[in-house]
Specification:
Blueprint: H1 13-25, H2 31-39, E1 60-63, E2 66-68, H3 71-82, E3 89-93, H4 99-107, E4 110-115, H5 118-131, E5 136-140, E6 153-158, H6 167-171, E7 173-183, E8 190-198, E9 201-210
Parallel strand pairs: 3-4, 3-6, 4-5, 6-7
Antiparallel strand pairs: 1-2, 7-8, 8-9
The chain binds S-adenosyl-L-homocysteine.
Length: about 220
Amino acid sequence: MKSHHRGIGMTSQRTRERLIGRLREEGIRSVAVLEVMGSVPRHIFVDEALASRAYENIALPIGHGQTISQPYTVARMTEALSEGIKLNKVLEIGTGSGYQTAILAHLAGQVYSVERIDALIKLARQRFMEMGLRNIRLKHADGKLGWPEYAPYDGILVTAAPQEIPEALLEQLAAGGRLVIPVGASGGAQTLLRITRVPEGYQREILEPVSFVPLLPGRELMQF
Ligand code: SAH
């Protein structure tokens, strides 16, 4: 582990347990999800200057105008994706810091994650290496297209909000597979949805109101 990650106190088990207590109070029930949230160090996924706030239940900036999701939201989405089913292959859209990716990697066989900002992919990849996470594949592309090469997926989790559900993501769901996705205008009312692929088509559940950065078109080109 790099020395700048070794802040005093912020990695302490007590600090993390306090966060798990908050998640439980806010309604997270899955023991598996609570355990993973307690074991994955969130401070590794934020800038050193913000590391002391990493175990607060808040979203934090990660540069490039993006944010690491609030722990409650990560837990809620992971629970919605995983409850009652076995996740073999999972696709994530919007790697960002890689925190949600790392949580998924502890619960699924293999995680594929697509991100449109290359600099964020590079940082996330370093973090996964430091943590010894080997079941994650990353791709610099437009997540609206999914990642057809490895489809179908048992679960697809989207961490940025489109105005409408991208068709490709629905097509890449396995039978019985689930898509957990925030939908709606950025800055406006967004709704977290869970779509399940059933024999007759797709079943839609409304989970709760959420606030995400927008799912942007295309991938970011190199900037100099
Ligand atoms: N799960 C991440 C959330 C990051 S914010 C975390 O907890 O850190 C959402 C991310 O989605 C940003 O990194 C943004 O660059 C990315 N994103 C937005 N539109 C995208 C698209 N069309 N394809 C892939 N990634 C996208």
